[in-house]
Prior knowledge:
Helix content is 31%, strand content 26%. It is α+β, with helices and mostly antiparallel strands.
Amino acid sequence: MNLRFDGPLLRGWVYTSSNKCTNMKCRCHTDASKRHGIYHRWTGKVNGKIITRSISKEASVECRRRIDNYHALMKRIEKLVDDEIAREPWKNIGTGT
């Protein structure tokens, strides 16, 4: 198995949310269907810290593609490691064969 991957990679997750504003008289505080937005966000770990960024709808599509690429690569790596473990490499170490 060779370790190819399809395009750029990104860890994290993409999601959408809507928010309540700071105006307590706004309808968004009493009616969830009146909340503001559909905001697209990416959250992931950067330099050991979890961060969230607001992104455009178009960027969310690209981030999702990159995240899918990352998951596919990690799945291939796990398969590669599983295959190596299945070969039981410790059986031939130090036996001269």
